[in-house]
Amino acid sequence: MKRYVLFFLLALSAFNLSAQVVIEAPEPYAQVIDSKGEVLELGTGGEFSGEAPVTVRLFANAEDVEGYSLVCTWEFLKEGEEEPYLIRYDKDVELEVRESGATIIQPKIVYTNRNNSDDILEYGDFEPFRIVLSESSLEAPNGFSPNGDGINDYYNVFNVKSIVSFSGAIYNRWGQQLYSWGIDGIGCEDCGWDGTYKGKDVRAGVYYVVINALGADGIKYEIRRDVNLLRGYTEESATP
Length: 240
Description:
Layout lengths: L1 H17 L10 E5 L5 E5 L3 E4 L3 E6 L8 E11 L7 E3 L3 E6 L3 E13 L2 E8 L5 E5 L3 E3 L3 E2 L13 E4 L1 E9 L5 E6 L13 E2 L2 E2 L3 E11 L4 E10 L5 H4 L2
């Protein structure tokens, strides 16, 4: 009786090894978080266009299958190049993209039978993700009018695109620093220097700004210039 049972178990084991395992085709997707914190979800073949830097989250969306090893590969290439500049092998990946131009992200997912290395199921024909980041720009005004009329009440940079690092500071004529700000304080409304120091208004006059910034395209911005603080200036007073 034991021999029949042993034979039955061996036959069942052989059947299981030869049985075809059905694996549902994975559907990778991506999330792109821009510099303002907004999230855009992309399916394969999707494209994001915007300013640098952005955070990219990649999800293989592939199920684990008993008896099979799962390898997820993400290749990162600059558009027009054949060799990837980065390869990641995690199931889910998160990284920051800071360089301007087009970055191509190609997913590949492979299942391999742990008991039979010839049993391989490969998914590599996905359309790649495409992340396009603009060239950088940055300008600094030569004056502002913090008079509470809602127009030019704050001193800050403008025409900001794809800036990946930034530092700025305002000084008076004696070299005393009155205000400083970083990358989190640019590209927003009602932010920047409001013409005060330690909570009190400074006098109208000429001040000095020092700005150091770096664009996603490698351009360095080194701005040193006078800043005119105009307390009594309004749009109405400027009208002839």
